[in-house]
Write a structure and sequence with these properties.
Blueprint: H1 11-23, H2 30-43, E1 47-51, H3 54-64, E2 72-76, H4 82-89, E3 93-97, H5 108-113, E4 119-125, H6 135-144, E5 147-151, E6 159-160, E7 163-164, E8 171-175, E9 188-192, H7 195-205, E10 209-211, E11 214-215, H8 226-257, E12 263-264, E13 278-282, H9 284-287, H10 291-300, H11 336-341, E14 345-348, H12 356-367
Parallel strand pairs: 2-3, 2-4, 4-5, 5-8
Antiparallel strand pairs: 1-9, 6-7, 8-9, 10-11, 12-13, 13-14
Helix pairs in contact: 1-8, 2-8, 3-4, 3-7, 8-12
């Protein structure tokens, strides 16, 4: 089976983990501090707070910004659910906006149309490694006093003309899950140039403790372990090379499959995309089968691919217990681009350890599927 994704780790990461295990220091040590410093230098952020997941980094970011009940946070309808659940965790109301059919990230024009007097923040996701047009929203946010949060869970190393993603808004959040562009096994990080945001997040990351005997604020157990940080340090050193391979693999697939009539590759920016996924849209009518049937067919032929959700997030059962600001149910939302894209999107194998022979096989099998 040609895997769609896998962590790219080796002897360097193994040696780093072994060193931590033998040290007896597993939590809140020098490796976490070193990882935070290295990541800050890499992305160009003054402050980094390492966490145990990307979801906890998002949660800390919203808490530090003071987002809470009565506030609205604009989010995309095509992304991982943690983007939305972090808003619900602070008691705020998610407001779904449509995406661009080209970048698959939030459409700034649609976002602007959904801003109200309750809008406290915009949570912009750089989906599949695409550095979306977040800079187009900075002026809107500044003029309206809205905080801009970047969800960079799939965009390590992605850049725009304004800088590395995560540093353009008020705060950014990264995930280091096993199959991301770089991994710590599980882990995350909050990045910001605002010391107040960083100090609040760092305090709440460890139970709100200022000393062994004092809890100043309500906090959480969101600490990154020394083992995770050790893996992260090794991975960060390799990130540019790992991304180069992802980009090369994705562009090879685009070039060799670009004329397949039932496949459409979203239009990527000229540069800066780091291809967490190599996303394609499946024209089900031309193909003559549903996306799920295509995934099953490819798996039977030895090629694993993936999709996320078949519908926009506002139809998730977890949202049935919540209401939009106007009192209506979330499943009454209808965003045309999100509706069209969600059931069509799949990711092709593009991980850094793919061989040329495996790419040849993927191309041959996909081209062999008749319409």
């Amino acid at each position: 089976m040609i895997r769609v994704a896998r962590p790219s780790v080796g002897e360097e990461e193994a040696a780093a983990v072994r060193e931590v295990l033998l040290s007896g220091k597993f939590v809140s040590g020098r490796r976490v501090e070193q990882f935070e410093q290295s990541l800050g230098e890499y992305v160009g952020a003054d402050h980094v707070v390492a966490t145990n997941s990307g979801t906890s980094a998002l949660h800390l970011a919203l808490v530090a910004l003071g987002v809470g009940p009565g506030d609205e946070v604009i989010v995309p309808a095509v992304t991982f659910f943690a983007t939305v659940s972090s808003v619900l965790q602070v008691g705020a109301t998610p407001v779904f906006a449509d995406i661009s059919g080209e970048t698959l990230c939030l459409d700034p024009e649609d976002v602007s149309a959904r801003v109200t007097h309750r809008t406290c923040a915009i949570l912009f996701v750089h989906l599949f490694g695409c550095p979306g047009p977040v800079d187009e929203l900075t002026q809107l946010c500044r003029s309206r006093g809205i905080r801009l949060v970047e969800d960079c869970a799939q965009a390590h190393g992605a850049r725009t003309d304004e800088g590395h993603v995560g540093t353009i808004g008020d705060v950014g959040a990264f995930s280091f899950f096993a199959t991301k562009n770089m991994t710590t096994g599980e882990g995350g990080a909050l990045v910001t140039n605002d010391p107040a945001i960083a100090n609040d997040a760092r305090l709440r990351r460890s139970h709100g403790m200022t000393s062994r005997h004092t809890h100043e604020v309500l906090g959480y157990n969101y600490r990154m372990t020394e083992i995770a940080a050790a893996i992260g340090i090794a991975q960060l050193d390799r990130l540019d090379e790992l991304n180069r391979r992802r980009i090369d693999n994705s562009k090879t697939l685009q070039e060799r499959l670009g004329d397949v009539p039932w496949l459409q590759f979203p239009q990527a920016p000229v540069s800066g995309h780091v291809y967490f996924w190599c996303p394609v849209r499946v024209n089900r009518k031309l193909l003559g089968m549903e996306t799920t049937d295509l995934i099953d067919r490819l798996r039977e032929d030895g090629v694993e691919c993936r999709n996320r959700y078949l519908e926009p997030l506002y139809r998730q059962p977890a949202l049935a217990a919540y209401r939009q600001s106007d009192g209506t149910a979330y499943d009454t939302c209808n965003l045309p681009v999100s509706e069209a894209a969600a059931p069509e999107l799949i990711g092709l194998p593009n991980h850094p350890d793919l061989t040329d022979d495996e790419i040849d096989t993927v191309v041959t099998i996909i081209r062999g599927i008749s319409t």
